[in-house]
Amino acid sequence: MASISSAGIGSGIDVLGLVSQLVAAERAPTDQRLARFESTTKARISAFGALRGGLSGLESAIKKFDGTGADLGRKATVGDGAGFTATVGTTAALGTYRIGVEALATAHKLHSAAGASTTQIGYGTLSITVGSDAPIDVTIAQGKGTLSDIRDAINAKTGGQGVSASVVRGDAGDVLVLSSTKPGTAGALTISASGGDGGLGVLATTGGTMTTQTAAADAKVVIDGITRTHSGNKLTDAISGVTLDLTKAKPGEVFSLEVTADPSPVKASLLTLISSYNTALNALRTQSASGGEGKVAGPLGGDSAPRGITQSLRGLVSNNYSELAALGFKTAVDGSISMDGAAFDKAIAADPGAVARIFGSEGALGKPLRSTLTSYIGNDGLLTDRTKALDNRIKQLSTQREAFNARMGRVEEAYRRQFTALDSMMSKMQSTSSYLTQQLAQFSKQS
After folding, report:
1. Which residues lie closer than 8 Å to 431 by C-beta, 6 or more apart?
2. Other C-beta atoms lying within 10 Å of the C-beta of residue 39
3. Beta strand segments in 252-395, E
4. What does the pLDDT look like over 88-140, one tens digit per residue?
């Protein structure tokens, strides 16, 4: 194939410039059409993404009312100076309880007799039992029987199994301290020794020198005259839905625990729902704006999908308007909603189950709203399908552009061949013309 590398060869025709201009003129309409189509399609994909985002936020907000999410919360009020604190869940029964903390649970702590830090207590095996658990055997090697050595051996063997060892240096010498990590009688420590030289027997709880610094004791609390003992200071099952944290023993004293309804969690969820609903409506309105009179048209202007979604959402609110109004809800001309907090507090005090009946999983508004949102943004929803179709269109445009570029490459090659042939022919004609001119000039001289 002939190659043209610069202007002025042969006939002097600017082949490269001509070919470039012809190819550019031929490809411009299709380039513009594909670019415009691609830009429009990507804008629509982005617009549907904005709609999905708005509706997903609304879906998350309504799901907060699933299960017991639409039930009023609970608030615990404890009498001043009580030896306990309380937290309550939504299942706690409303009412007042009289509670007294007679005793706190304490963890067992043992001290050895004091001795010099270098004294070898002995060697053999220490068996440590925590409550009713299986004994933990700790081997003390010969020559490794100081209190510090024994401490290290115990911690290495029993780490995380209910007991810890330390050495406290006092005026009389070193003291081995064994502490149960389990409060109450269920964590009581029992120590025995066997084997070796018998020296470890001084660390046994029976026949040895170990003394109790803190006795293992269970917590004791009296609730409405009913006594309950527990191995720890946190009771999660004494009162249904209530957790008691015991902080100080106050024998003979009784304090009140009042469990009352707390609408603030549900109110906060409703405010989130309102904000999410208004955000979704605004996204629908923005992306489907028709434009005109100086206003910018949205990417989905003229598309029926956002209009249909808007009508569905507003229709659901309209169908339940009287119930919503009773809770303090209001609607604006543009379809957005708001809530009068004071009116809500008053309504919910009179009818605690109103929120569940409207927004719960089976609620008059909650159930159809959940279903409607699934039909739009679920795996087989309208917006999901529309987005997939647009993604496929982008792929098709890419294929079309590749095919178009290949065709334009062939067109450019054809132009090059044509102009190369033209250049060659004109070059030959110029040579022939020059030859004839020379011959005629010589003929004239001879004549």
Report:
1. none
2. 11
3. 255-262, 329-331, 337-339
4. 988 899 999 999 999 999 999 999 999 999 999 999 999 999 999 999 999 99
C-alpha to C-alpha distance for 415 and 422, rounded to whole angstroms: 10
Q: Within 13 A of 367's CA, how many CA atoms are on the CB side?
A: 7
Q: Under a CB-based contact definition with an 8 Å cutoff, are residues 181 and 163 in contact?
A: yes
Q: How far is residue 338 from each of residues 51, 270, 312, 330, 429, measured CA to CA in Å?
A: 21, 10, 19, 5, 88
**402-424 per-position pLDDT tens digit:** 888 888 888 878 777 777 776 66
Quick check: 78 and 242 in contact, CB under 8 A? no
Determine the distance from the C-alpha atom of residue 167 to the mean position of all C-alpha atoms in its chain, rounded to a whole number. 46
Mean pLDDT of 397-401: 84
pLDDT, tens only, 281-324: 999 999 988 866 767 788 888 889 999 999 999 999 999 999 99
CA distance 318 to 274: 15
Q: Given 3.30.930, 3.30.1370, 3.30.70, 1.10.3470, which CATH number is that of 109-214? A: 3.30.70
Does 352 score more than 80 pLDDT? yes
Tokens of 230: 């527990």
Give the SS3 label for residue 328: coil
Query: Which ranges of 320-381 does DSSP label H, i.e. alpha helix?
Result: 321-326, 341-350, 354-359, 366-377
Burial of 389-409, coded b for 16+ CB within 10 Å and e otherwise, reads ebeebeeebeeeeeeeeeebe
First vs last Cα of the chain: how many Å apart?
A: 47
Cα–Cα nearest to 40, from 446, 418, 404, 393? 393
Beta bridge partners of 235: 244
